[in-house]
Amino acid sequence: MALRLLDICRETGGLFKMRIAQVSPLYESVPPKRYGGTERVVSYLTEELIRQGHEVTLFASGDSTTKARLVAPCARTLRLDAAVKEPLAHHSIQLDQVLDEVEIFDIIHFLSVTCTFHCLIGNQCRI
What's the domain count of the chain? Predict the structure, then answer.
């Protein structure tokens, strides 16, 4: 696979546009309003990938701000939502959202609690 990507880059003069999913934790928005090191890195990486011409979908809380297409399993950060009793349920919804679109992505980058479920994606999608 890596060699094929290198061939494509050579054939297109290095202009290889990828479809990338960024899967962020839901405890803070992207970028975070205050604390949130992981979410800040997700934001920097997502915005730079877009700047370089890639097509990026960000799976994050609905109060996130991005130039990417945003898919949100919850309206706001879980940490600030007093109605949230079980945050893992929202991460399960997020994983389902990723799985619904798994075929359209070249790369899925998990930076979330859902990364513990990566084996489920591999089994379901034959990755």
Answer: 1
Rounded to whole angstroms, how far apart are CA atoms 27 and 61?
Answer: 8
Summarised one tens digit per residue, pLDDT across range 30-70 is 999 887 788 999 999 999 999 999 999 999 999 999 999 99
Residue 7 lies in a domain: no
Q: Which of 59, 32, 58 is nearest to 46 (CA)?
A: 58
Q: What share of the chain is helix, strand, coil (3-state, %, to 5)?
A: 45, 15, 40
Residue 86: exposure state from Cβ atoms within 10 A (0-12, 13-18, ≥19): exposed
CB atoms within 10 A of CB 92: 15
The string of pLDDT tens digits covering residues 95-114 is: 999 999 999 999 999 986 54
Task: Kindly state whether residue 6 falls inside one of the protein's structural domains.
Answer: no
For residue 91, give the CATH number of its domain: 3.40.50.2000
Domain that holds residue 30: 17-125
Residue 113 lies in a domain: yes
Distance between CA 61 and CA 84 in Å, rounded? 13
Is residue 22 situated within a structural domain? yes
